[in-house]
């Protein structure tokens, strides 16, 4: 496998990177770099230059696609990860993909005889593997991406997502259905992917669909996943039904009680604490925005 050329543009230390990011937000050089990326994607891409956005780095990584690994141009910003197909190296790209970094989770991959220096990029909508040319470049990419994610989550107060799409098994790794272990794929009998586990399966082993957390409409899943997901869904429905019944019973008992609880409410109002707002926090937020 041939791996991509590495052209990461920032310094080798995370402290220097963070310092440069804070200074680069409003710099003309940063704006020019982002405008250059926009021009490389042309009309097929979205506007990338917005206030506060910084281009942290860029480079070519090998993305494991459904049929085979392919080189893709990646751009790391302080809030998004952008990648696209290479039409003319460093001059023209198409099929732009934008991934919000708040949704991203990275997972390192062990080297194999055929693949080296790889890691998984997991998101709620799509997950896939990428590979760098060297182990050093892999470490730098992962360090910079994780640093951007940590900064975003710290500023927004959000938590890392625990829902991620499955990584699809490449077609080349499955000549036989991974569910029934019998059906052999040919030019006529085509491969399908289970959207829940990522396995390569035949049509008879994936005739059903299920609404997954990562999608807005039901997706194709294998029979094993459909049975497992249906079982979990049924258990949750039973739990919700029991909770609803208990709440109704509790409300009925409260309604039958002679007292209306006005005294308790008045006592609670007497002990109510006034809200506190801290100027320091506001000033800190303003300085962070600057």
Automatic annotation (TrEMBL):
Bias (Polar residues): 236-251
SUPFAM superfamilies listed in its UniProt record: FYVE/PHD zinc finger (SSF57903), PH domain-like (SSF50729)
Domain PH: 54-150
UniProt keyword terms in alphabetical order: Metal-binding, Zinc, Zinc-finger
One GO BP annotation of this record: endosome organization
Gene3D superfamilies according to UniProt: Pleckstrin-homology domain (PH domain)/Phosphotyrosine-binding domain (PTB), Zinc/RING finger domain, C3HC4 (zinc finger)
GO molecular function: phosphatidylinositol binding; zinc ion binding
Recorded coiled-coil stretches: none
Phosphoprotein as UniProt keyword: no
Residues annotated as transmembrane: none
One term under GO cellular component: early endosome
Biased segments, Basic and acidic residues type: 267-290
Annotated segments matching region Disordered: 236-290
A Pfam family of this chain: FYVE
FYVE-type domain boundaries: 171-230
Highest taxon of the lineage: Eukaryota
Compositional bias ranges of the Acidic residues kind: 254-266
Protein name: Pleckstrin homology domain-containing family F member 2
Native source species: Chironomus riparius
Higher taxonomy: Eukaryota, Metazoa, Ecdysozoa, Arthropoda, Hexapoda
């Amino acid at each position: 496998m041939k791996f991509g050329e590495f052209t990461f543009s920032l310094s080798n230390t995370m402290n220097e990177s963070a310092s440069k990011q804070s200074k680069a937000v409003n710099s003309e050089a940063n704006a020019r770099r982002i405008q250059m990326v926009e021009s490389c994607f042309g009309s097929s891409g979205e506007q990338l230059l917005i206030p506060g956005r910084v281009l942290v780095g860029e480079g070519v990584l090998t993305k494991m696609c459904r049929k085979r690994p392919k080189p893709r141009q990646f751009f790391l910003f302080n809030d998004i990860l952008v990648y696209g197909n290479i039409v003319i190296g460093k001059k023209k790209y198409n099929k732009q993909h934008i991934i919000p970094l708040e949704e991203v989770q990275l997972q390192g991959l062990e080297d194999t005889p055929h693949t080296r220096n790889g890691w998984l990029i997991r998101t709620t909508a799509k997950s896939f593997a990428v590979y760098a040319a060297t182990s050093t470049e892999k470490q730098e990419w992962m360090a910079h991406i994780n640093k951007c994610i940590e900064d975003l989550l710290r500023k927004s107060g959000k938590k890392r997502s625990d829902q991620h799409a499955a990584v699809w098994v490449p077609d080349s790794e499955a000549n036989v259905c991974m569910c029934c272990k019998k059906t052999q794929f040919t030019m006529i009998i085509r491969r399908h992917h289970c959207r829940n586990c990522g396995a390569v399966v035949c049509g008879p082993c994936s005739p059903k669909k299920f609404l997954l957390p990562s999608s807005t409409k039901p997706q194709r899943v294998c029979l094993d996943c459909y049975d497992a997901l249906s079982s979990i869904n049924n258990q949750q429905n039973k739990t919700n039904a029991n909770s609803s019944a208990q709440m109704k019973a509790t409300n009925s008992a409260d309604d039958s009680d002679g007292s209306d609880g006005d005294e308790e409410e008045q006592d609670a109002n007497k002990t109510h604490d006034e809200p506190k707002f801290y100027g320091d926090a506001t000033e800190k937020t303003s300085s962070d925005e600057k």
